[in-house]
Design a protein that fits this description.
Thiol Ester Dehydrase, Chain A; 136 residues; alpha+beta; six-stranded antiparallel beta sheet
Length: 136
Amino acid sequence: MSTTVHRVRAGYVDTDQSGVIHHSVYVRWFEEARNAFLRERGLNFVDLEHHRRIGVAVAQMNVRYRRPVVFDQEVDVHVWVGQLKNASLRFDHMIESEGMRLTEAEVTLACIDLDRKRAIRIPDEIVRCCQPSAGT
């Protein structure tokens, strides 16, 4: 399994009234980790989006919050490809700190034609970098 680990530090701005990281912040962390995963494997999103007019859109997200993250806590966001289909792929995420699993998520993305706003087959360069043997 080819995994990327993206480290983040929880900011004060990310907390809610109870002093823990707001649930919406995790979505940003998942996206940052996915972008790092794809960047490490040489995918050029600027070319895909601006020149070829291909995008990826979140189609589904399932998150399980096991333990809270608090202000100034460093966490590692692990990400890997859990499933690869013709027009979609699922990234699996796990957030941990000091060996403790805090959060798990599955995020399914669909490739789309940005001009027509319709699902399309996953481009070969995405398929190549999202194979289990790709990258690290």
